[in-house]
Design brief:
Two copies of one chain form a homodimer. By secondary structure, the first copy, chain A, is mainly alpha-helical. The first copy, chain A, contains eleven helices and three strands, in the order αβααββαααααααα. Chain A is elongated. The relative contact order of chain A is 0.11. Chain A binds a DNA duplex through α3.
DNA sequence: TAGTGACAAAGATCATACTTATGCAACCCC
DNA sequence: GGGGTTGCATAAGTATGATCTTTGTCACTA
């Protein structure tokens, strides 16, 4: 067994950058650096124990996400959250890990409410037969996992289900939102904003979506997916209010 | 007059990076580097006449956009378009500048069809009075500019109008799409996919949206915005088919 | 008080040296 | 001869020092 890198304990997959990017993104996302505060490159080198090259490359990436901006003679300035690239997968994850999580989930779910029913509608018009069948299969397994109360499996299948609907829409922009949806579902589960046991109605709706897409019925597909979204929004609000009252 | 940098002729705003990023993004977006092809850092240094640090920082950013991936002992590999971060403003612009423009506009418009009517609906429920008034004002000016046939002004106002609707929705995810919409509208105008003279119905619909939002009528706001989107899609298809038949 | 010019701080860029992972091919054992 | 193993050359990764360029700041002048 080769000696694992002793410099990075709980390091992210590969590379020094990835690690530093993640740490900084997490810190900024959590508001540990208020918007407007400045850091100097030299500081950061020291704090993360890496060289200038690494820091600069990290900063470039964060800058391209709209999280920081560097100006000569001043330093690297943290930008307000309104500038951040909210559609970047990492930014989403960082924000879901932050205290502002709930508000974030709310707006993400609103976005899903706009997108996914449309995606389902288009899928009913355009999905290849193979996709439609797979969707039916997934809906079935999802039902089973829901009844069994197997949370992990349920999450995995749920992600797959929504991913397939999005990609079956035939629209690349919708398809690209699959990672966003996956983050949302994972976040909801991970942070306890999912009901303990999925309600039977919710399971049925997934079956309805799959079935409508297979039948090529855009109106039903749209309607059922919309119902799923509205239910998700309601569930989140409920659980969130309960938590707030405790 | 100080000597302007002779290395970058039509250089982008400030900085060497920005320039190189733009050139490379444009080239990759246009398919000049087929997916899977590899480049070596040393090559790129030479080709763009910049040092290694600059190239590396550029590559980091492109990698974070999912456009390239670098592997030791191999080089930097161009990733297939399915991996690209399609919600990044620069990626959108690069693709709109490429031959695949029309397909891109189609999927972007489909996305807008899903989002903007919802945004209008939410705006009718949540928009502050000031925003609603400004919207009415914009709709008025838009009408005037449309009647006058002042294309530039029309574009500017159109962008402002849609931006304001998105931001008035109170949803940050919708709000963040304003740059996407701006790129689409600019692209349509710039590449001749906009009718010469905006049709009166289209102008009226913008007024209808603003009016519905001001009245706080979500159903009408949704409906009118949807009509705008459907009309845009139709216009694009028509012009595009005409162009194809020539 | 406003305008102006010198100074210095900090990022931007360049150049170079050293480290590390890894594709490939030669090699060896069965 | 086939399949696994070892070595090596290569190209990216990381570190560091030097130099260039921009731009706040502040003192000085009118």
């Amino acid at each position: 067994m080769r000696p694992t890198d002793p410099l990075s304990p709980g390091a992210v997959p590969p590379g020094l950058h990835a690690s530093v990017i993640d740490q900084m993104g997490l810190a900024i996302g959590a508001g540990e650096w208020a918007a407007g505060s400045v850091m100097r490159i030299e500081e950061l080198e020291e704090r993360y124990g890496v060289s200038r090259s690494v820091i600069r490359e990290v900063l470039r990436v964060l800058a391209s996400m709209g999280m920081v901006e560097s100006r000569r003679r001043v330093g690297v300035q943290v930008l307000p959250a309104t500038e951040w690239n909210l559609y970047d997968r990492q930014v989403i994850r960082w924000r879901l890990a932050s205290p502002g999580r709930v508000a974030q989930l709310r707006s993400l779910t609103e976005l899903r409410t706009a997108i996914e029913p449309q995606a389902a509608r288009l899928a009913a018009l355009r999905a290849p037969l193979a996709d439609a069948s797979e969707l039916m299969g997934l809906a079935g397994k999802l039902w089973a996992a829901g009844q069994d109360g197997d949370t992990d499996l349920f999450l995995t299948l749920d992600i797959q289900f929504h991913r397939l609907v999005l990609s079956s829409s035939g629209n690349e922009m919708f398809g690209k939102l699959n990672s966003l949806v996956a983050e949302v579902l994972t976040g909801r589960t991970h942070y306890g904003l999912m009901p303990e046991h999925p309600h039977e109605e919710a399971l049925q709706m997934h079956v309805d979506v799959a079935s409508a897409i297979q039948r090529g019925n855009p109106v039903d597909a749209h309607q059922s997916m919309l119902a799923i979204m509205e239910r998700a929004m309601t569930e989140m609000s409920t659980l969130w209010n309960e938590a707030a009252h405790k």
